[in-house]
Every structure is written in C-alpha cells, then in structure tokens.
Amino acid sequence: MNAQSERTKLTPAELRGLFLFESLDSTQLEWLAERGRVESRQGGTPVYSEGEPATCFFVLLGGTVAVLRRLHGDDIEVSRTDQIGVYAGATQAYLGDRVDQAYPNTLRAITDVELFVLPADEFAQAIRTWFPMALHLLEGLFFGTRATNTILAERERLVALGSLAAGLTHELNNPAAAAVRATDSLRSRVTGMRHKLALLADGRLDGSQLHQLVAMQDAAITRAKADRTLSAIEASDAEDELADWLEDHGIRQGWDIAPTLVAGGIDATWLSDATAALGEEHQESAVRWLAYTIDTELLMGEIEDAVTRISGLVDAARQYSQLDRAAQQPVDVHELLDATLAMLQAKIPPGVNVVKHYDRGLPPIPAYGAELNQVWTNLIDNALGAMDGTGTLTVTSRREGDGIVVEVHDTGHGIPPEIRPRIFEPFFTTKPVGEGTGLGLDISYRIVVNKHHGDIRAHSQPGDTRFEVCLPITPPLDEPDAPVGPARANGVN
Fold this sequence. Notes:
There is one protein chain. With 493 residues, the protein is α+β, with helices and mostly antiparallel strands. The protein has 3 domains: 119 residues, Jelly Rolls; 149 residues, no CATH class; 144 residues, Histidine kinase-like ATPase, C-terminal domain (Heat Shock Protein 90, 2-Layer Sandwich). Helix content is 47%, strand content 18%. The chain starts with 11 loop residues before the first helix and ends in a 21-residue tail after the last strand. The C terminus is likely disordered.
C-alpha cells in the first residue's frame, strides 16, 4: 500500500464495509464521510502517543499497527493487529470533560498504514445524537464501575485500617499492662524499703555502717544494671547456692528472696563481703533491704522496657501513616518496610519466620510514603495468607539499574498458572466470599505503576512466590505524576 495515499475521503459505501459502521443508515454514513478523512502513516512512526490530548478517533483501513503502554520508562507492546476496521484513540470522547481526554496508550504504525480519522468532538456528537440509549448505558457502566471501584477501594482501606488498628491495640496493650503491673509491684517494694530502712536507721547503726549500707546499695544497683544472661540451669544452681548461704546465716525464708538477688547479679561471695562489716545482728535486715533495692531496680527496668516498646509502636504507627510527611518526598524504603512489619506483627502467626535482607546502601527515593506502605501491606498480607500459618516470609531490597527492587517472598502454595495473568485485575480474588474484594493487588499496581512510574512483577510456583516492586531512584522528568486511576486503558479493539 502506498503510504501517501491519494484519497482523502471515504465514500458512504466504503464506510459501510467497515464492521463498526455496517448498521448505520445512509444519512449517518454520509455525515461520517463528510466529517472524516483518510490519513496515512509510514511504518515505524506513531499514529498518536500516550498522554497526548485525545483529539481523534482512528479506524484501521490497511496495514499493521501495534498498541504500546509506557511502563517504567519503556514502551511495552501489548497488542498488534492488521484487522481492517479495528479502532483506537479518543474512544471516551462521548464522556466529555468529565474524564481526562488523553490518549491512554501509544498507537504505532508497524507497516505503512491507512486510517480513517474522525475528530473527537465529531465522534462524541455522533454517539450522543445517534445512540442516546446506548450513551446512557455506556455512561452508567463507566461511572458506575468507577464509583463501585472507589467504594470498594475505600472499604478495602477501611478493613485494612481496622485490622491494623486492632493489631496495634493488641501490641500496645501488652507493654501497657506490663507497665501497670510493674508500677503496682514497685509501689509495694518502695513501701517495704521505707519500713526496712526505718528499722536499720533507728539508732542501731552508727554513721559509718549507714554509709557502708548505702555503698552496698549502690554497688548492688550497678550489678543489677549489668547485662548478663544466665541459662535456666545456671540460674537455678545460683539460687540454690545463695539460699543455702542465707539459711546458714539465719536469714528466714531465704529461698523466697534468693531469685531476686540472683536476678540482680548477687552471689554468696559478694553478699558475704558486702555485709561482713554490718555485724550479724543487722545482716538479715540489710539483706532484705538489699533485696527490695534490687527488686525495685528490676521493676523500673521493666517499666522502662514497656514504655520504650510503646514509644516504638507509636513511632512505627507514625512512620506507617506518614501523617507528618509531605505527600511526596525522599523516603528510606527500609523504614517504610519496618514500620509495615511492626504494624502487621499481630497478624504474623508464630509458625511464620520473618527474614529481612536489606541493602543498606540504597539511597532514598522520591515517593508517596503512605501509599507505598499500602503496597507493602497488601503484598505481605497476601503472603501470610498463602502460607496458612507456617513458612518463611522474606523481605529483600536491592539495587537494579537506575532503580531499586523490593521483593516480598513467601513459601506458600503459590499462584496457579491459569489465574496468574489475572491477579492484577480489579475485583479478581481467590479468597472466599466476604474475605476479599479483589482490589489489593489492583491498588498496589496503580500506586506503583501510575503514581511512581515503577513496575510490579510476580513469579510463582508452589513453595516459591515472589512479588517484585521496582521503583525509580530518580523520577522521570518528562512525565507528570499520574492520578491513581484505572491502570488498564483501552487498546485497539
């Protein structure tokens, strides 16, 4: 076919030969023939490019064309055809300014092609005028599907938020309850210390002995703070040895205070040296006062650990929600991943081992932190569900070319090959009715691809399923941030 065809118009009869127009009446065909035109394109040149204003509706008259989608900076061919009559371009012009009128893909001429071209506003007028009932149906389908998608996506987020809130509440309750219990115990120990100190200081001890008692207390606190770990057998042996010493020195119920003294790093040798100068008549009061001191120090350590744990959970929640961050700014993906794992801790079964392999040399990347956390949540939650309570969850980060890759790997049952091509489709789910909306991976796809100009890939076989999220280190300069909308655009029909 000559790339520079001499004809510029189609006759009504030629238009009727195209399956798209075969049912139109003569008046409608004449209207199209008058307003449309014939154009040619040389092989290897674009008919239109993705993201440009959608100004025309195209129908293939001859040659071969391909539809391409821009993904991670590359144009990926998604279909190719030489079928006469297929159409592309401004297919949603009839919706007017209620949707973004931009080409959703790139149409490229593979060979020299000839096209029937109809301006978008003329195509929109024809649809509205000739097919009013079909127009209402199409509008209802389009906006209804979009509204349903939005509602279910919001529900998916609310369900995820509720689950995370329940998990966070559970995680916060444990250290909070521990702090309350330790505080209550600490109050009684402090009361006991006051009483015991009063007995020691009612004139029975001279000044030098009191100074020695305080020095013994300071030394005991230092030992209690020391980082040491005894096995269960070692601790039991130490307690038996110390209980024997206490019994030998006439200290009643020594077996009751021996565990506290051992937990504070006190042994028989140290205790014998520390109390030698106090005299036997003061030894029992001094040892019990010392036990109160160590118990108090240990309880304050428990409170400190509990409060630190609460502070860590609150910080993880802040990091996860990104409430105090700008919409897009440089983020450390490892901080986001750790925050997500902390928020999901309550959902991780005891039989699942979590392994992290982070490349700490990765630079920060420009991203929407809260939305990336939603991606990590969806992928990790799916991985946990696939393992049925037992297996290994591995989260890996690495450099790949000009971007970074975050991989979520599980040892679950895998994704059957027959459904693998559909996993990113909206509303597609393998979960039982009521347990999933089929939007988790769809939302993840749109966040990664549309909003971050990245890519998300899946590889699966039984016992080895990997989702790889590829994110650019530097955002494309020639592409504006795309809204998180439908990721699958109309191609050649």
